[in-house]
Specification:
single chain, 620 residues, alpha+beta, Elongation Factor Tu (Ef-tu), domain 3, Arc Repressor Mutant, subunit A, DNA polymerase, domain 1, seven-stranded mixed β-sheet, six-stranded antiparallel β-sheet, 21 helices, 37% helix
Length: 620
């Protein structure tokens, strides 16, 4: 019934969609198996993409030739660039999406992808021969053979939904859990664990009083995620902000004795940086209010997502407490919030390609690795799909380093340090974040995507044009000067020292109080010169000029750290024999099996002195 596939992808969430698209677009014959064709690319929780560090990841996926950025641009209803008051390393794009359009657009994209087949069924096991995966088994009793398998099971592996004292199996509201895979992988020697995540109630937007809330509009000049020619927003839907209060908190506390989180019925750890509302009330007892974001689910729906009110308390407690929030006095609930527990596999069992160490050609991507978030899942799917294809072709794998992208930071963190709570990306996790900005993801990663065959000639030509224009603009600023009479009034107005002689434009721009917009308003000739170029290219030149000292220092650090990455550790290396290493280092190194000294240096419990010992040993 089925031919043999090059790549079988299990699960059609954000990781599965990117994995299937990448492998198929590279030329592999791909089978995407999902339990429900109607929920492909479902935004299970928040109908939004991007955010702090997450927005950088979406831009990186796009730069490589993935689809998350393109789909988001085509379906977003609001755009905001977060952290614009800070330096460009912190700028993070975020979009509110139309949930239904997003899923439809992803499905349409996949259906128009050559080499890609679909099958609706549950996968309840993998087929392994001689330590190598050769296919999957389905609930209907089919065997689908494949040279590689990518598991992207999300929250479905033995998923258990909790609402107050009620609990029932499920991978998502109204969808059944997936069984069989965890038990089989455990028998094969894989370590497993449990994690927990949650979601808030959805309410009828017609029953809310927005006059009691703060409106949160999108940016006046909305940008986009993709470096391709996707449409720009011309109209946007606002979000709103309101707050809990002491009365809300007291009602929530009434349900604590029925909370599955506080009574110990939930064993898995939840996301530290996205706690449930009852957890916030309990942990931050000194705070008399917490922010609630009221986010529309799409252009034409009245359904509202209540961000900040994630909960697993009984429905009646949720409803009673929610109606004490300003603007929610007459709110009607579409469905309650709930918590979900699911199986994951500690990611130290993977290599940098996301292939498992125990079973050849088996790859894991997304929440199965202990991550949380669509963006984190999508980038893992992209890399697993690429590397599964390359494994079939018996070609060198693709590994993005920590200095090349947030994708590299995420993968390296997971396989080197592991995680026992849902892993979320932050800018603080990247030691080279001045280099890993959202504005230059195309410069960093499109050449790699183009070399692979995922990024088109047009994409590469645009990158080359961006580099050329940025260099031209920098040259102009280094060569052109201004006199005091032209700029001193502007400098005074901005609270910075005036000049007494002709000064290069570059020197003026490098002042913290001055930016390109301010200079263009003051100098019509400069404004006219820059108007011939794309705004994005000019912004790139401005960032390079204003932060060149910081960028240069960070690049020097990358080069220094790169020397450790260049020192390879052979697969058979026996760390236990080096008695001059600390006992903890020997234990951790033997478990993680780092492939370079650089990776070894990032393992928790391995000290700089341990690395010095290894360096001496490698030198021998």
């Amino acid at each position: 019934m089925f031919p043999e596939y090059d790549v079988i992808v299990v699960g059609a969430g954000h990781a599965g969609c990117e994995a299937a698209a990448a492998a198929a677009n590279l030329g592999s014959r791909v089978m995407l198996v999902t339990m429900n064709m109607q929920t492909i690319a479902q935004m299970s929780c928040n109908p939004a993409m991007g955010g702090v560090a997450k927005g950088q990841i979406v831009r990186e996926v796009d730069a490589m030739g993935g689809f998350s950025g393109i789909i988001t641009d085509r379906t977003m209803i609001q755009f905001r660039m977060l952290n614009k008051s800070k330096g460009p390393a912190m700028w993070s794009p975020r979009a509110q999406s139309d949930r239904q359009l997003f899923a439809n657009e992803w499905r349409n994209t996949l259906e128009h992808t050559p080499n890609l087949d679909f099958w609706q069924d549950m996968v309840n096991g993998i087929i392994v021969k001689d330590g190598r995966v050769v296919g999957v088994q389905t609930g209907m009793g089919h065997e689908i053979l494949g040279k590689t398998v990518v598991l992207t099971n999300g929250t479905f592996l033995n998923g258990l939904i909790h609402i107050g004292e009620k609990k029932f199996g499920g991978g998502r509201a109204a969808e059944r859990a997936a069984t069989g895979i965890t038990e089989q992988l455990a028998e094969l020697g894989f370590e497993t664990g449990r994690m927990k995540t949650g979601t808030p109630p959805r309410v009828d937007g017609r029953t809310l009083d927005y006059s009691k809330m703060e409106e949160q509009p999108g940016d006046e000049l909305p940008e986009k995620f993709s470096y391709t020619d996707t449409p720009r927003l011309t109209k946007q839907r606002p979000c709103h902000i309101t707050y809990t209060n002491s009365e809300v908190h007291e009602i929530l506390k009434e349900g604590f004795d029925k909370s599955p989180m506080f009574t110990g019925r939930i064993k898995g750890l939840g996301p530290r940086y996205c706690p449930s509302v009852e957890d916030k009330v309990n942990r931050f007892a000194d705070k008399d209010r917490h922010q609630i974001f009221v986010e529309p689910e799409g252009w034409n729906t009245v359904e509202m997502y209540i961000n900040g009110f994630s909960t697993s308390l009984p429905e009646d407690v949720q409803y009673k407490a929610m109606r004490k929030i300003a603007g929610f006095e007459n709110a009607k609930m579409f469905r309650p919030g709930y918590a979900i527990e699911y199986d994951y596999f500690p990611p130290t069992q993977l290599t940098h390609t996301l292939e498992t160490k125990l079973v050849k050609n088996l790859f894991f991507a997304g929440q199965i690795n202990g991550t949380t978030g669509y963006e984190e899942a999508g980038c893992q799917g992209l890399m697993a799909g690429i590397n599964a294809h390359l494994a079939v072709k018996e070609e060198e794998p693709v590994i993005i380093s920590r200095s090349e992208g947030y994708i590299g930071v995420l993968v390296d963190d997971l396989i080197t340090k592991g995680t026992d709570e849902p892993y979320r990306m932050f800018t603080s996790r990247a030691e080279f974040r001045i280099l890993l900005r959202q504005d230059n993801a195309d410069l960093r990663l499109t050449p790699l995507g183009h070399k692979l065959g995922l990024a088109s000639e047009e994409r590469m030509a645009r990158v080359e044009e961006k580099i050329r224009v940025a260099a031209e603009v920098q040259k102009y600023f280094l060569n052109e000067s201004v006199t005091p009479d032209l700029v001193n009034s502007m400098l005074e107005e901005q609270g910075t020292t005036t000049i007494s002689q002709r000064t290069k434009l570059h020197a003026i721009l490098s002042r913290p109080q001055i930016d390109m917009q301010i200079m263009c308003r003051q100098l019509p000739e400069l404004d006219q010169y820059l108007s011939q170029y794309d705004n994005e290219f000019v912004e790139q030149a401005e960032i390079k000029m204003k932060y060149e000292g910081y960028i240069e220092k960070e690049q020097q650090l990358v080069d220094k750290m790169g020397k450790l990455e260049d020192v390879r550790i052979i697969d058979s290396f026996d760390f236990r024999k080096i008695t001059s290493l600390s006992h903890e280092a020997r234990e951790k190194l033997s478990k993680v099996r780092p492939t370079t000294l650089g990776q070894a240096s990032r393992i928790s419990g391995v000290s700089p002195s341990d690395i010095s010992v290894l360096m001496v040993y490698m030198g021998r």
